[in-house]
């Protein structure tokens, strides 16, 4: 099984010719040239883009999406999808805010938010693994049902806490680096380690590459899928903590809307195959940065909200198309 799992993550041995070296560099670079080109274009269009203050803002804007996208990477690598992460984020944020309002229970706000996120993720995974329902249908149902639960928690109102005990996560920094960015980078590193340096990670790739072969090898695919969706839910819960800490508030109706689409876009922009079996969390990080740079840059150059959606969509589709053509060409 070790050999089968590894085949999904490791390229076959090639002769070290100059052509193969170029191919390796192009494959490793992924969408990084697109990110650099966007940064240069926005810097030329508006001098404020390249300032240190704005770049920190871009990183902060990318942080929550990056955390969600890391969980989504696990899911998509298995050939699945999780459309419920935005709703889970909202529900987790509501739980954290509500518990933080009681001084006697405030210390449990973050663990409770993470726990509710993981619970919903495990529930998604159990429905997919045990009943055999398609991930799209299960998580689409979760998107609406969990969103409804989040709204019920706050009575369809915004919950505020001006004395939020974990507000430093969303607004504090260390050595000038925001905690949001530190947390997001930590999630990236941990996710990379799990996917590339553990047996669990190799099985994740193998399931996306050939599910039936993994099952025949004796691996409990269903249990693996439960864990994978549990990870996605846990990271969505962490995203809820980060979002509520940033805002000092949570709203079950509006918080996290469309976040699942940004997370999927970041993963696909990063080069992870939508069919599963190939991709990397570092590519996902580049994809999340591309989305954040696009959002920030378009605002600075004065593009209206309507045209921002259109421009972002066209650039994302064009960038992925260009990257695929570039890989095939080489």
How would you describe what is shown here?
With 330 residues, the chain is mainly alpha-helical. The protein has a two-stranded antiparallel sheet with strand order 1-4. 72% of the residues lie in helices and 2% in strands. 47% of the residues are buried. The chain is globular, with a radius of gyration of 20 Å. The longest helix is centred in the C-terminal third of the chain and has 27 residues, at 221-247. The two termini are 31 Å apart. Helix 5 (85-100) runs parallel beside helix 7, helix 5 packs across helix 12 (221-247) and helix 6 runs antiparallel to helix 12 (221-247). The protein contains 15 helices and 4 strands.
Task: Give the secondary structure arrangement, pairings included.
Layout: H1 2-7, H2 18-29, H3 32-45, H4 52-77, H5 85-100, H6 109-131, H7 135-153, E1 159-160, H8 168-171, E2 173-174, E3 177-178, H9 179-197, H10 199-209, H11 211-216, H12 221-247, E4 249-250, H13 259-269, H14 281-300, H15 305-329
Antiparallel strand pairs: 1-4, 2-3
Helix pairs in contact: 3-14, 4-9, 4-12, 4-13, 4-14, 5-6, 5-7, 5-12, 6-7, 6-12, 9-10, 10-12, 13-14, 14-15
Question: What would a concise description of this structure say?
Answer:
With 330 residues, the protein is mostly helical. It contains 15 helices and four strands.
Please count the beta strands (DSSP E, at least 2 residues each).
4
Rg calculated over all Cα atoms: 20 Å
Percent helix, as a range, is over 70%
What is the averaged pLDDT score?
88
Q: Which fold name is given in CATH as the topology?
A: ABC transporter involved in vitamin B12 uptake, BtuC
* Main sheet: strand order: 1-4
Number of domains: 1
The assigned structural class equals mainly alpha
Shape: globular
- By DSSP (H or I, 4+ residues per run), the number of helices equals 15
- Residues in β-strands, percent: under 5%
Succession of helices and strands: HHHHHHHEHEEHHHHEHHH
Q: Which architecture would the CATH scheme give at its second level? A: Orthogonal Bundle
Report how far the terminal alpha carbons are from each other.
Answer: 31 Å
Spans of at least 5 consecutive residues with low confidence: 1-13
Largest sheet data = 2 strands, antiparallel
């Amino acid at each position: 099984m070790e050999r089968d799992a590894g085949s999904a993550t490791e390229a076959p041995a090639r002769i070290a010719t100059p052509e193969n070296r170029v191919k390796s560099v192009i494959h490793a670079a992924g969408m990084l040239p697109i990110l650099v080109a966007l940064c240069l274009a926005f810097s030329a269009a508006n001098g404020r883009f390249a300032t240190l203050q704005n770049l920190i803002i871009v990183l902060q804007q990318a942080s929550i999406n990056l955390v969600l996208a890391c969980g989504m990477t696990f899911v998509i690598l298995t050939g699945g999808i999780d459309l419920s992460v935005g709703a889970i984020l909202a529900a987790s944020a509501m739980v954290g805010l509500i518990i933080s309002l009681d001084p006697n229970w405030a210390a449990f706000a973050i663990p409770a938010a993470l726990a509710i996120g993981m619970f919903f993720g495990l529930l998604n995974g159990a429905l997919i693994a045990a009943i055999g329902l398609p991930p799209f249908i299960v998580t689409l149902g979760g998107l609406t049902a969990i969103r409804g639960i989040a709204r019920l928690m706050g009575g369809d109102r915004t919950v505020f806490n001006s004395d939020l005990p974990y507000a430093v996560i969303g607004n504090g920094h260390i050595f000038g680096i925001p905690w949001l960015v530190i947390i997001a980078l930590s999630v990236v590193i941990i996710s990379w380690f799990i996917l590339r340096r553990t047996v669990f990670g190799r099985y994740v790739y193998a399931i996306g590459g050939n599910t039936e072969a993994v099952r025949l090898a004796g691996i409990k695919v269903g249990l693996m899928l439960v864990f994978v969706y549990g990870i996605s839910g846990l990271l969505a819960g962490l995203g809820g903590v980060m979002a509520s800490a940033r805002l000092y508030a949570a709203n079950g109706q509006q918080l996290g809307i469309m976040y699942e689409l940004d997370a999927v876009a970041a993963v696909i922009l990063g080069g992870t195959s939508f069919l599963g079996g190939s991709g990397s969390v570092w590519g996902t990080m580049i994809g999340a940065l591309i989305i954040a740079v696009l959002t920030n840059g378009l605002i600075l150059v004065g593009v209206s909200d309507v045209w921002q959606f259109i421009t972002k969509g066209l650039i994302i589709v064009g960038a992925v198309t260009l990257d695929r053509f570039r890989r095939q060409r080489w």
